[in-house]
Amino acid sequence: MTGTSDSSDTIHALHDEVKRARVFQKLDKPPLQAPQLHMLVHHEKHHPHLFWQKLHVNPDIFDDILDHISDHPIFQNKSNNPQLPVSIQLAIFLNWAGHYGNAITLEDVAQWAGVSVGSVVNCTHCVIIVVLDAHDQFICFPAGNSEDADLARKFAESHTCPEWKGGFLAIDGSTMDLFTKPGYF
Predict the structure, then answer these.
(1) Contact, 116 vs 154, CB < 8 A?
(2) Are the C-beta atoms of 94 and 123 separated by less than 8 Å?
(3) Element (H, E) at 6
(4) 3-state SS string over 123-171?
(5) CA dihedral of residues 141, 174, 42, 127 (deg, nearest 10)
(6) What sign for the dihedral angle of Cα 70, 74, 79, 81?
(7) Is the full-model pTM beyond 0.90?
(8) How confident is the model over 159-169, as pLDDT tens digits?
(9) Considering only CA atoms, which of 156, 138, 160 is closest in space to residue 148?
């Protein structure tokens, strides 16, 4: 009978410990985190190519997007827990969105930014909501006779096959192997 009582007491003690600590197993060491988000400020001024490598936009474009989205109501809250600054949320989103496949995971972005995985998801959701709300401001086709369309046509002619010289909507500088269908389509 005492064995049953001891195991019952042990189970209750463990239950109380888990309830109090809210973890099942404590880590021996805290997970390694060396956030690099702060490096963007340095890269913006001194190494714009490294800024672009992380966020896939130039610093000026980042600032323009930031100016357009900063006043959106989704970034306002009346909670005692403030949100991350909009610039950090945008950087987290762009870092995650600019990479794909095995190149990046939620954990990679979380470690890079020094935030939790849940924060990466929340930041991404907030920025996507703003971009979708402002879709018509952010995404538009240039008029066929505009200077932008003319520059794109010249780029297409110089970087692709001659047959595409009049095109300007599908050229980004990458070469495309058209003999096979992409895997996701």
Answers:
(1) no
(2) no
(3) helix 2-21
(4) HHHHHHHHHHHCHHHHCCCCCCCCHHHHHHHHHHHHHCCHHHCCCCCCC
(5) 40
(6) negative
(7) no
(8) 777 776 676 66
(9) 156
What SS3 state is found at 68? Answer: helix
> CB 27: neighbour CB atoms within 10 A?
7
Give 93's DSSP letter: H
Q: Which token pair is 91?
A: 């950087």
- Residues 93-124: tens digit of each pLDDT: 999 988 877 778 888 899 889 999 999 999 99
Secondary structure (DSSP) of 28-64: SSPPP----TTHHHHHHHH-HHHHHHHHSS-HHHHHH
Kindly state the tokens that stand for 26: 């404590």
